[in-house]
Structure formats: structure tokens, C-alpha cells
Write a structure and sequence with these properties.
Keywords: Cell membrane, Cell projection, Coiled coil, Cytoplasm, DNA-binding, Membrane, Nucleus, Phosphoprotein. This is Switch-associated protein 70. It is found in: Cell membrane; Cell projection, Lamellipodium; Cytoplasm; Nucleus. One of its GO terms (cellular component) is nucleus. By secondary structure, the chain is α+β, with helices and mostly antiparallel strands. Among the domains are: about 100 residues, no CATH class; about 100 residues, Pleckstrin-homology domain (PH domain)/Phosphotyrosine-binding domain (PTB) (PH-domain like, Roll). The strands form 2 sheets. It has a 7-stranded antiparallel beta sheet with strand order 4-3-2-1-7-6-5, with helices on one face. Strands 8-9 form a two-stranded antiparallel sheet. Strand 2 and strand 3 form a beta hairpin.
């Protein structure tokens, strides 16, 4: 409803601004309530437009009344063309230029409605150059002419230098002047405007003549089909006066191509939940175009997307907003850079002034320094002369002292040479004594080592003799143990052989006993079969308990004591019953 309200406001704005302010509210409100199918409230209207300081000419204005009593009650069940025509009627006479146009008033009305659809959402309403280019391209394509991009670029440059865009009346004058439709007659331009109007305003995605098969009489009739975002309407002719029916489209619908049949060609089928429609196009190209257009519409319904032209308008608007935001951001950054640059310039100017002041101070200081330097040079020259005289005297004294020092040094060198010779003699004597002492100590150490070696060799010899004796004894003992183990092994082997023979004999005895048991079991089974019906006469011998067994007339170990007592009680009971 927000988008519908914005579309209505644009047309209402044109009508409201074209009328006198004192009477525009009442006249416009009454007409709006009529065309929008909104209940008219004369009391609220008179209350709002009473002659005082709270009427529409005050700060309160006309918009609060329009929103509260009209736009909020709009349900969408009104004729948009009739609504736009009413607003056009109120504003066209005042704003439409008197210069002759190449388009009719009806075409101008349609251009005005298209302007409201493509204009920006800000007042006063204008259409930006991008939307002008889009509209002119659509009209040019509808006329079947080639688009002159270079011509429009020149026009766009001239337009951008003076303003942001065109008003509705300037757009009508631009299209009506024939500047971008040269060589086209009025009828061609009118048909192109009508086609663009049908697509952008009436949401007509495709229209044209096709044959439709009836549901009752099954006959084929030519109809004018109009495809919209959620419906396909078909009429007797293209004047849209006699409507024959609608095909409601939703996400569950589908369209399929059919093979030719019954003399009809270029067939396709539209399947809905409740009905199926067979349609025949004039040729294969039209058939494919209609199938593709219907399928695209169904896909948009499934995805919940708006019609292509509305979606394209929204994308263009978002792109412009993005570019505008980027431009504003760029301008902001440029301003920041400019401000930073100005601050830098100010800082540089301050630094320059500081440098100039510092240079002036430095020049003054340099002047003072030069003056001081001259004074110092004069003083230094005097001191230098005085120093030269002192140095000459000192040099003479130094020459004398040097001669005396040389003699003294010569004597010192001679004494040092004598001291070195004496020191060397002492060192030679000391070294000879150290060598003698070293040789003596070495001889003593060698004697001690020889003695220790002899004692150690004697000890090793004794240990070797003892080890040899112990090794012989251990060897003899190990030999005895080995002989004993071999004897035990031979005995164990003999016992193993004996056990193997005994095992074989036991196996043979086991096989014989097993055969005897099988024979006995077979005999027992045959006896069981013979005496099964004579209970008590014969009882097979079975393993009994470990308790003592009794010997009866049935044989030894036939019954246990408990079983015999049970038998006796049974016999006594039977005997008492028979007596």
C-alpha cells in the first residue's frame, strides 16, 4: 500500500498545485472520494477547511486530511486510468503549453502518467536524465526506429548544465516536439506511446489476437488477449470494450506446447487449477513468444517478484541512490581533504613565519658571533706572540736538557746491558739445577714403578694359578652334570615311548568298549519296543544312584530302595481296590 500511496500522491500533487489554494482542497477532495471509491465525509471536510488559522493555508496544510480521510481508506478497487484522468483534467489546462505539439492530448495524458511512474520521490517532481533516456528508448523501440545515443548525449550534457531533470510538462514538450522521433508520423508515435503506456502503467506484458477453443461448444473463436502480471484477459476486439473472460494466473499454472491437431497449428495449453485453455497462435514465432511470456509471468508469481518493468525501475532507482551516496561520500571526502589542505596551508604559513623569525634571530646572532670572533682573534694574536717568545726560551732550555738527558740515557743503557747479562747467567745456573733435580726425581719414580710392576706381576701369576685350578674342577663337575642329564633324558624318552604304547592300547580298548556300548544300546532299544506296553514287567538297566541297590526278581540293580517302596505302595493300593 505504501507504493500505491506514493503513486497516488504524485498525481494528486499535480492537481493540488494547479488549483487555487482557497478552493482546491474541497474540489479535489470531492473528486478523489468519487474516483477512488472512498466514502465521502462532508463534516470532516468542512471542519478541516473552515475559515480560520487552522485550515489548509496554515502550517497544518492539506496533507493531514488527505492521509487520514482519503488515502488510508483506499482499498485498490478503483480505476487507475480514471483517477489519473481526473487529476490530469484539473492540472492540464493550466500547465500544458500552447505551442503546437506532434502528439494528441490523449498521448500527452499518457506521457504525463508515465512521468508520474518514472519520476523521483521528491517534490517538486522531476524526471532525471537516466529515466528520460529509458523512456525515449522504449518509445523508439516501439516505433521500430534506431536509437540515437549520440544525439541524446548532447541533449543530456546541455540539460545537466542547467538543471537536475525535467518537469512533466517539459517532458511532454520534449516528446511532442519530435526531436527524437524525426521521420515518424503522428500515428506511429501515438501507437508507440500507447504501447509503452500499456506496459508501464497498465502492466500489459503482451497482447495480440489468437484463437481460443471454447469449453462448451468446442469451437475456435478469435480473441484479443492481454497478458498482465497475474491474469490473462481476452476480448472480442482490441478496443477492449467487450470482455469475454479471464485466465487467473498463479504459481501453480503452467504452459505447454501442443502438436498440431484438428487442422489447427501453433497450439499451446495453459493449465490452471480449475480449467485448461487451448490456444492457437498465428505462427510459430508468436506461439513461442506467448509461451515464454506466460511462463516468465508464472515464474515471477512463484518467486513473488514484481513485474519486470517495476523491478527494473526499482533497480535503476537503487543504482542512482547508490551513485548519489557515493558522490556525496566523495564530496564529503573532498571537503575533508580541502579542509585538511587549508589547515596544512595555515600550518605551513605559521611555520614559514616562525622560520623567518628564526632566520632573523640567527642573522642577529651570527652578527654578534662575528664581532665576538674578531675580538677573540685580536686577543689570540697577542697571546700567540707572547707564547712564541715563551716557547723559544723553553726550546733553548729543552735543547740543553736534552743533551744532558742523552748522556744520562746512554749510561742507563750501559747499566741495563750489564744487568741483562748478569740475569742471563743466573737464569742458566738456575735452569741447570732444575734439570738435575728433574732427572733425579725421574730415576726414583722409575725405580718405584718397576718395583710395583714386579709385585703386581707376582700377584697376577698367583691368581692365574688359582683360576686354572678352579676351572679344572668346574669343568669336571659340569661334565658329570651333563652325563647325568643325558641319562635322565634317555630314561624320559623310554618312558615317553612306553606312555605312547599305553595310549594306543587305551584307544583300542576305548574303541572296543564303544562298539560294545553301541551294540548294547541297540539291544536295549529293541527290548524297549517289545515291552513298552507291559509296564512294570521289565525295566532296563540304567545307571542308578550311588545309594545301595536291591536285588529283586527283575535282576540286580533294577530298582533303588525309593523306587521299590513306591512300587510296593502302588501294588498295595491296587490290591485294596480289587478286594
Amino acid at each position: 500500500m505504501v507504493g500505491l500511496k506514493e503513486e497516488l500522491l504524485k498525481s494528486i500533487w499535480h492537481a493540488f498545485t494547479a488549483l487555487d489554494l482557497d478552493r482546491s482542497g474541497k474540489v479535489l477532495s470531492h473528486n478523489l472520494c468519487t474516483v477512488l471509491n472512498v466514502p465521502h465525509d462532508p463534516v470532516a471536510l468542512e471542519e478541516h477547511f473552515r475559515d480560520d488559522d487552522e485550515g489548509p493555508v496554515s502550517n497544518q496544510g492539506y496533507m493531514p486530511y488527505l492521509n487520514k480521510f482519503i488515502l488510508e481508506k483506499v482499498q485498490g478497487n478503483f480505476d487507475k486510468v480514471e483517477f489519473n484522468r481526473m487529476c490530469w483534467t484539473l492540472c492540464a489546462k493550466k500547465n500544458l503549453f500552447k505551442s503546437p505539439l506532434l502528439i494528441s492530448d490523449e498521448d500527452a495524458f499518457k506521457v504525463w502518467v508515465i512521468f508520474n511512474f518514472l519520476s523521483e520521490d521528491k517534490y517538486p517532481l522531476i524526471i532525471v536524465p537516466e529515466e528520460i533516456e529509458y523512456l525515449l528508448k522504449k518509445i523508439t523501440e516501439a516505433m521500430g526506429a534506431g536509437w540515437q545515443q549520440e544525439q541524446f548525449d548532447h541533449y543530456k550534457i546541455a540539460l545537466n548544465t542547467s538543471r537536475e531533470g525535467l518537469s512533466a510538462w517539459e517532458l511532454i514538450e520534449l516528446i511532442g516536439s519530435g526531436q527524437f522521433s524525426k521521420g515518424m508520423d503522428r500515428q506511429t508515435v501515438s501507437m508507440a506511446i500507447n504501447e509503452v503506456f500499456n506496459e508501464l502503467i497498465l502492466d500489459v506484458l503482451k497482447q495480440g489476437y489468437m484463437l481460443k477453443k471454447g469449453h462448451k461448444r468446442k469451437n475456435w473463436m478469435e480473441r484479443w488477449f492481454v497478458l498482465k502480471p497475474n491474469i490473462i484477459s481476452y476480448y472480442v476486439s482490441e478496443d477492449l470494450k467487450d470482455k469475454k473472460g479471464d485466465i487467473i494466473l498463479d504459481g501453480n499454472c503452467c504452459v505447454e506446447a501442443l502438436p498440431d491437431k484438428d487442422g489447427k497449428k501453433c497450439l499451446f495449453l495453459i493449465k490452471c487449477l480449475d480449467k485448461t485453455f487451448e490456444i492457437s497462435a498465428s505462427d510459430k514465432k508468436k506461439k513461442q513468444e506467448w509461451i515464454q511470456a506466460i511462463q516468465t509471468t508464472v515464474n515471477l508469481l512463484r518467486a513473488g517478484s514484481p513485474p519486470p518493468h517495476k523491478e527494473a525501475r526499482q533497480k535503476r532507482k537503487e543504482l542512482r541512490q547508490k551513485l548519489l551516496a557515493e558522490q556525496e561520500e566523495l564530496e564529503r571526502q573532498m571537503k575533508e581533504l580541502q579542509a585538511a589542505n587549508e589547515n596544512k596551508q595555515k600550518e605551513l604559513e605559521t611555520v614559514r613565519k616562525q622560520l623567518e623569525a628564526a632566520a632573523a634571530r640567527a642573522a642577529e646572532e651570527e652578527k654578534k658571533r662575528l664581532q665576538t670572533q674578531v675580538e677573540l682573534q685580536d686577543r689570540f694574536s697577542l697571546e700567540l706572540e707572547r707564547e712564541k717568545m715563551v716557547r723559544q726560551k723553553m726550546e733553548e732550555q729543552v735543547a740543553q736538557k736534552s743533551s744532558e738527558l742523552e748522556q744520562y740515557l746512554q749510561r742507563v743503557r750501559e747499566l741495563e746491558e750489564m744487568y741483562k747479562q748478569l740475569q742471563e747467567a743466573l737464569e742458566d745456573e738456575k735452569q741447570a739445577r732444575q734439570d738435575e733435580e728433574t732427572v733425579r726425581k725421574l730415576q726414583a719414580r722409575l725405580l718405584e714403578e718397576e718395583t710395583a710392576k714386579r709385585a703386581e706381576l707376582e700377584k697376577w701369576h698367583l691368581q692365574q694359578q688359582q683360576t686354572i685350578q678352579m676351572t679344572e674342577a668346574e669343568k669336571q663337575e659340569l661334565e658329570n652334570q651333563r652325563m647325568m642329564k643325558e641319562q635322565a633324558l634317555q630314561v624320559a624318552m623310554q618312558q615317553l615311548k612306553q606312555l605312547e604304547l599305553e595310549r594306543k592300547e587305551a584307544l583300542e580298548q576305548y574303541e572296543e568298549v564303544k562298539k560294545k556300548l553301541e551294540t548294547a544300546a541297540n539291544n536295549t532299544k529293541s527290548w524297549k519296543d517289545k515291552v513298552a506296553h507291559h509296564e512294570g514287567l521289565i525295566r532296563l538297566i540304567e545307571p542308578g544312584s550311588k545309594n545301595p541297590h536291591l536285588i529283586t526278581n527283575w535282576g540286580p540293580a533294577a530298582f533303588t530302595e525309593a523306587e521299590l517302596e513306591e512300587r510296593q505302595r502302588s501294588w498295595k493300593g491296587k490290591k485294596a481296590t480289587s478286594e
